[in-house]
C-alpha cells in the first residue's frame, strides 16, 4: 500500500509540475504579448512626437522670421524717431529764431520782407534734410526773396 500511495502521490506531483509548467508558459506568453503591445505603443508615440516636433519646428521657423522682420522694422522706426526728434528740435529752434526776428523787427518798424526770408529759410532747411520731397523742387534761392 505504501507503494501505491507513492505512485499516486508521484502522479500528483507530476500533475502539479505539468500544471505549473503550463501556467508558466501561459504567463510568459501574456508577458510577451504585453511587451509587444507596449513596444508598438511606444513606436506609435515616438512617431507622433516626431511629427509634432516637425510641426513645431516649422512654426518656430515662421515665428523667428516674423521676429526678425519686426526687429528690423523696429530698428527702422527707432532710427526714424531719432531723426524726427532732431527735425522737431531744429524746427523749434527755427521757430524760436523766427519769433525773435519778428519781435525784433516789429519793435523797429518791421518789414514783410524779413518774414518772407524767415519762411524761406525754414523751407530751405527742410529741403536740406529731405531733398527728395517734391515741395523742394519749387524753392527759389533765398536771395530772390529780398526786395
TrEMBL record:
SMART domains: BRLZ. Keywords: Coiled coil, DNA-binding, Nucleus, Transcription, Transcription regulation. Residues 14-77 form the BZIP domain. It is found in: Nucleus. Residues 39-80 form a coiled coil. GO terms for biological process: positive regulation of DNA-templated transcription. One of its GO terms (cellular component) is nucleus. Residues 1-36 are annotated as: Disordered. Pfam families: bZIP_2 (PF07716). The keyword Cell wall biogenesis/degradation does not apply. It comes from the Eukaryota. GO terms for molecular function: DNA-binding transcription factor activity; protein heterodimerization activity; transcription cis-regulatory region binding. Residues 1-11 have a biased composition (Polar residues). This is BZIP domain-containing protein. The lineage of its organism: Eukaryota, Viridiplantae, Streptophyta, Embryophyta, Tracheophyta.
